[in-house]
Write a structure and sequence with these properties.
With about 325 residues, this protein is mainly α. Helix content is about 40%, strand content about 0%. It binds heme C (2 copies).
Length: about 325
Amino acid sequence: MLRKAVYFFGFSIFGLSFWMCKSLPDLNEYVSAPIPADNPMDSAKIALGKALFFDTRLSKDNTINCASCHKPDLAFTDGQKKSLGINGQKTERNSPTLLNAAFLPSVMFDAHLKTLELQVLVPLQEPSEMGHNMKQLTPLLRQDSVYQKAAQDIYGRDFDAWVLTRSIAAFERSLISMSSPYDHFIKGDSSALSKKEQAGYKLFSEKLYCTECHAPPYFTNHESRNNGLYLDYGNDKGRFRINQDSSEIGHFKVPSLRNIEYTAPYMHDGSFASIEEVIDHYARGGAGHRLQDPIIQPFTLSENERDALISFLYALTDLSFVERL
Ligand code: HEC
Ligand code: HEC
């Protein structure tokens, strides 16, 4: 355990100085993303946020970091139905992608947290996730001379919760993934999508009703809806648990479909292992919960159409950021 901690310690120091001068994301790529006035983007801040994102000291027993559940090569998800926190504890939900989080007006499946800065505190302090607390963590990280110096240089203050939450949020906002074959097609490169993918796009946006909720360009309308996953939502009633408003039972944030090829299993609880299962769900017309969105109705697709729809969904993949990391 100690060796592991020391390794990551060294890694983060090396990584920080390395990242600060090399392979930074192109600032022009996220100029259009909304950046809060009190947390402007800058390269040194993103580099610090990145080092923290991969630092296992953020968990109580030094075993996991943010990337344990948000792995870059899985589009910042973890491939598990429900993520595992410290001591092998099962969390309540499936890990969502962090790509394009910069565009989210609210985060979490309950769509209730307004900023990425605030969100950082949740996994950090949640006993079943990283199980740490800010009071103990910040003095510990302040002893890291690289972090302390970066805090002084960037924010003009000692390393603290303000520095930590802002830096991680800035790193997350740099994770833009908007350069898929679909985007090239929309920008005028008609060869970017195959005939089959174009047919799938037509099905997705015209024959079916998917764009009502998964609207381009983000492939989400940023609302929370009941997509009829269950007849009875059991213990996890989604957004209902925030306001105890019974009209919000079964409401979950509409997730983006970008990079869906890499983010299985699907839904807030990872209950669908594959895209095929997701399409079966919608084709059945949902489970028929009383608050299910009326847009969702049964449909039939031929084998070819189903194939085309899936190939279109896979044309929403842009993992180029992995090379830039
Ligand atoms: C133990 C696994 C785990 C760890 C560690 C973890 N997360 Fe998550 N993360 C999740 C799960 C599960 C959710 C969904 C929670 C929910 O919506 O109720 C989530 C949600 C999020 C979201 C909201 C995304 C959205 O689309 O709404 C952000 C942002 C995020 N995590 C960032 C982080 C950061 C930053 C860290 C490190 C400080 C971190 N996570 C550590 C599992 C984890
Ligand atoms: C009424 C709004 C609505 C419509 C219409 C809709 N969806 Fe969804 N979709 C959702 C919601 C809400 C979720 C998340 C539910 C959850 O987490 O339990 C979701 C989840 C998904 C997911 C899983 C994403 C992930 O990362 O877990 C896929 C894939 C998907 N929808 C595809 C489609 C397709 C294809 C169509 C058209 C046939 C469609 N959706 C129509 C609201 C909608």
